[in-house]
Amino acid sequence: xxxxxxxxxxxxxxxxxxxxxxxxxxxxxxxxxxxxxxxxxxxxxxxxxxxxxxxxxxxxxxxxxxxxxxxxxxxxxxxxxxxxxxxxxxxxxxxxxxxxxxxxxxxxxxxxxxxxxxxxxxxxxxxxxxxxxxxxxxxxxxxxxxxxxxxxxxxxxxxxxxxxxxxxxxxxxxxxxxxxxxxxxxxxxxxxxxxxxxxxxxxxxxxxxxxxxxxxxxxxxxxxxxxxxxxxxxxxxxxxxxxxxxxxxxxxxxxxxxxxxxxxxxxxxxxxxxxxxxxxxxxxxxxxxxxxxxxxxxxxxxxxxxxxxxxxxxxxxxxxxxxxxxxxxxxxxxxxxxxxxxxxxxxxxxxxxxxxxxx
Length: 359
Known about the structure:
It is built from 13 helices and ten strands. By secondary structure, the protein is of the alpha+beta class.
């Protein structure tokens, strides 16, 4: 995007993309500042107030705020005076501290008490130096090189494996497994704190005995858990609901029969469930039962009761039976049984033997 000056309509060139875009060019900005200073002087003179001149160059000063007296110096003289003060302060404290270089062992003066070397060359050599240290883990007896700053920060081991807690044997006589304690001491988990047992079961078996009472669950919860486990697949769900199940009636077969076209909205469905950026695809083809399997008297997972729907229409339909224009349940169960019987006979070993003998 090209920006232009609001006064002269000249194109502006931004030095950086950070911050807001400039509204005026350098010349127009200087002219506006000068006009503001003139207006300020006129207002001061109209109110009967004097405009103080710079004590060094004699130019009129410009205020930085609405309150308080005028400044003694103009902006240029104030910046120059601040620079001179900084240089004088540096010269004054230049030889204040007398130090010894940690690289060449020479005496030098500096204005900083924390300076370690006398020159840039010594500083580079001091940063590159290494110290040989022995590993602090008992039994390792290996030496490694590192910087002095790393030793001050607490490095004591030659590798990450040496810094780990050594493995121990589980105190349970029936286990005696090697493990590495990782958890801090806790009142709720005493088997973790002292690092004597590898797991909670070993702690309880060694302390209370293997014949301790186990935690039991009510029969109703166990029955519900078993029923939910049965419903994890379509076959088990049909068995749980006591409805017919055709093993050849799966998603790809139903969608191929319908030409991968949604039977409610007519959109061309996609074969993949996920679209770009691994997000759910609303046009993904899904296997839908016209009469839901949970509905009493449902025909079950058979071809006459199956259709191809897109994800959007399937989410709208849910377990309802509306919108089923191609549903024909009259005699569908008998046709399904006859077709299934014929498929079983054609795929049986006896049929294969007959075909081989006929050839």
